[in-house]
Amino acid sequence: MVVACITIALKTLAWWLTDSVGLLSDAMESVVNLASAIFGLMMVTVAAMPADEEHPFGHHKAEYFSSGFEGILIVIAALGIVWAAAHRLFDPQPIEQIGLGLVLSVVSSALNGLLAWVMFSAARVHRSAALDADARHLVTDVWTSAGVVIGIGLVSITGWLWLDAVVAIGVALNILREGWRLIWSASQGLMDEAVEPEVLAQIQEVLHDFSHSREAPDPSVHIVRFDHVATRKAGQRRFVDLHMHMPAEWSLGRAAALRTNVEQALMAAVPGLRASIQLLPGDVEAHFDDPVRR
Predict the structure, then answer these.
(1) Are residues 111 and 74 in the same domain?
(2) Which of 78, 86, 249, 284 allows an S-S link to 176, with CB 3.0 to 4.6 Å?
(3) Are residues 17 and 121 located together in one domain of the fold?
(4) How deeply is 99 buried, as exposed, middle or buried, from its count of CB atoms within 10 A (0-12, 13-18, 19+)?
(5) Residues 109-138: tens digit of each pLDDT
(6) H or E element in which residue 228 lies
(7) Residue 14: which of 136, 137, 164 has the closest Cα?
(8) CATH classification at residue 153
(9) Is residue 95 within 8 Å of residue 269, measured between CB atoms?
């Protein structure tokens, strides 16, 4: 939020000095950055709250609201930029004090680039959808600023004032694409999207190790097997539900002990994972899709 306030001040000053609609579009996106950071802080705080009676699985999905809200703000900002640039396209205005304006834009972009790098690192450590969305938006902001700087530089060299408006519209289309991507990503998270392929591969590797019996005379014999593996993710949490089949003659205590070992191995392999395993005899199958017999 502090960096967003600084970049808003720098880019607004750059726009005021130059009267460039391209720099105005850049400043408007920084306002979106600030609003997104405030709402993101609120949602990350909610997501960190422990589970309660009304939310027994926790509040982790709150982060997706942050990502979706940020995407909506980006779309609104993009439409506002197009509206402002369209008028300037048909009524080009000279750009003043180009050198100082570009310096201010470059400094603000450097701050955003550094912040994005820090936030990407934090997002990986905490597996945070909100931080990752904010970091990706900041990267888009950096590329936007680079495009604006190049566009204004071309205006200065060629004298084609209409390039300023064209650059602003290009900026709007670029951030519009990023806004839609964030909205889509948030919607998929709210609909219980499956875990990432690399996470699923880690889960399958752990199950493969346990499915090879250490007790049977022939190591190739599988006296324990797993099926109906279903995964989902909610913010920084990952969930897996599955069935574990074992010999029917095993005692419940023996089966439960093995289940505990499997759950602990899964959660050790995938940080933040919650595993739920249903015990079934080896000759019993679950038929979820079979029609109900009356």
Answers:
(1) yes
(2) 78
(3) yes
(4) exposed
(5) 888 889 989 988 888 887 777 787 778 778
(6) strand 225-234
(7) 164
(8) 1.20.1510.10
(9) no
